[in-house]
Write a structure and sequence with these properties.
globular, 23 helices, 73% helix, mainly alpha, 508 residues
Length: 508
């Protein structure tokens, strides 16, 4: 942090230039009419098993994985490992739910989850709620990616907001030009760089520190295990499983995850990817251990990195570990993997949010008669606006750990589960009941995180027992209870349910 690391910066810039060039060239890859929203925003729905695998990997394994999870392990200890069971829980859900979602969206020409909700429940209001929630939840997640880039630039000795703004503008331009094809193509390079970095890290760092036994011996015992419950307070024993379960339920409700799935060429590609994606979970486990390695290396006690920890907190742990362990050129390589691992999902997220705005706000309420070209242009512009909105979360939402930004998005997006996932299987919930449940869940979840100063674990008091847990899950409980109760009330009042635009054959 004392000055610019020339060797690291040179390698970083070379790789950054490479992926930038790929981003612009991607417009010519598998060419289609990018003035059509399904071509710009879903890649023409033509991505096969291999491309979908890289796209979903680039979509789901982000700066959250490479920086935020190890930072939480570094700062909070074993609690940070909730990310491992959460991905394991998520994939069986994907296997069951997402092929069904792909079928109905493909047959009906839907581009977003809100499109499906609009057709299924015959409710523009409910579709608008799903769209707005998706856009809102995406903002802090993109913000997390930008934090990742910001920390890496700081580790390279580059201070100030201008370099981040330049990287941000490059991302914005090639996303505008190439749409989903850009992150899909870049994801191949990104995954290769990340695997090289992780394999090198888990091999070289333990050798330097004397082996994994020495690493675990150097970590304080209270960080190796979940903190034991106190009398009347379950503490981390309830926080850990609720964070894992709530995050698993939320994962594929995010617009960018849905976009990755809907861009695939068929149900078989989704199923094959569900079988292969656990390879990324193995990678995540190795990456999480970097938090313990940073503790064992004592990077937070090294005066050379004091300024970085002062500015970025625990989020600086992995960059400091790489600077401490590797020569400058490889540190630059590793930093490029983090930055590119942030750019790819940020691009997909902005495209997914733009799809929601264009289909379910712009075309539905602002320009119902717009042409296909105008619709695609509106999405391109919206993708730029969404990225600027994400900057607000960096500037104004206080975060000790970057992972809190992703958890905040989960609190909101999980409130769309009754409309999207339950709606895939049944219409027994009344459309206005689901909307009432959504409002209750959003209000409850937002109040909880605000009461905890934007932290996502809220202590629920049940009798004389305190049960800390992920606010997203507590809010979902309120959401479902209100949805069911309101359904009975609306049905009793004779409120119209609307007409389902889908048929049973659409789901298979």
């Amino acid at each position: 942090m004392s000055g610019v690391n020339t060797a690291a910066l040179a390698v970083f810039l070379a790789l950054f230039a490479l992926v930038t060039a790929i981003g612009f060239v991607a417009a010519r890859w598998r060419q289609g009419d990018l003035d059509q929203l399904h071509e710009w925003g879903l890649g023409g729905r033509r991505f096969g098993t291999l491309v979908t695998w890289f796209l979903l990997g680039g979509d789901l394994y982000t700066a959250y994985t490479f920086m935020a999870v190890p930072a939480l392990v570094f700062g909070a200890g074993a609690l940070g490992f909730f990310a491992l069971p959460y991905t394991v829980i998520a994939y069986p859900l994907v296997l069951v739910v997402m092929p069904r979602m792909w079928s109905v969206t493909h047959k009906r020409g839907y581009i977003t989850a809100a499109d499906f909700v609009r057709g299924r429940f015959d409710s523009g209001g409910l579709a608008l709620a799903v769209a707005v929630t998706g856009i809102l939840a995406t903002m802090p997640y993109i913000g997390l990616q930008l934090v990742g880039i910001q920390v890496v630039l700081g580790a390279l000795g580059i201070q100030g907001d201008l370099p981040l703004l330049i990287a941000f503008l490059i991302l914005a331009v090639y996303t505008y030009q190439s749409g989903l094809r850009a992150p899909a193509l870049i994801a191949v390079v990104k995954d290769a760089i990340i695997y090289v970095t992780v394999i090198a890290a888990v091999a070289v760092v333990p050798m330097k520190l004397g082996g994994y036994g020495k690493i675990f011996d150097a970590v304080a015992p209270q960080k190796l295990l979940l903190a034991a419950p106190k009398p009347g307070d379950l503490g981390q024993y309830s926080s850990y499983p609720t964070l894992a379960l709530g995050s698993a339920f939320a994962l594929f409700l995010y617009p960018h995850s849905m976009t990755g799935v809907l861009s695939s060429s068929g149900r078989a590609a989704i199923r094959r990817n569900t079988a292969m994606l656990p390879a990324y979970s193995f990678l995540l486990a190795l990456i999480a251990l970097l938090g313990y390695m940073a503790l064992a290396a004592g990077v937070d006690k090294n005066p050379a990195y004091a300024a970085g920890f002062k500015q970025y907190g625990a989020n600086f742990a992995v960059p400091a570990l790489f600077l401490d362990t590797f020569p400058g050129w490889f540190a630059g390589f590793a930093f490029a993997s983090i930055a590119i691992g942030a750019l790819v999902p940020a691009a997909i997220m902005s495209i997914a949010a733009a799809n929601l705005f264009t289909r379910n706000v712009y075309r539905e309420y602002m320009r119902p008669g717009c042409s296909d070209k105008e619709e695609a242009t509106a999405a391109k512009v919206a993708s730029l606006v969404v990225k600027f909105g994400a900057l607000v979360f960096i500037l104004y939402v206080p975060q000790k750990y970057a992972i809190d930004m992703q958890l905040l998005g989960g609190v909101w997006v999980l409130q769309t589960l009754p409309a999207v996932v339950v709606g895939l299987y049944t219409r027994r919930l009344h459309r206005w009941g689901v909307l009432a449940g959504w409002a209750a869940g959003m209000g409850t979840g937002t109040w909880m995180v605000r009461a905890m100063q934007f932290k996502s674990v809220y202590p629920l008091h049940v009798g004389g027992l305190t049960v800390p847990g992920y606010a997203a899950l507590w809010a979902l409980g309120v959401n479902l209870a209100v949805s069911v109760a309101a359904t009975f009330a609306f049905d009793a009042a004779g409120a119209a349910r609307g007409t389902d635009a889908t048929e049973a054959a659409d789901y298979v």
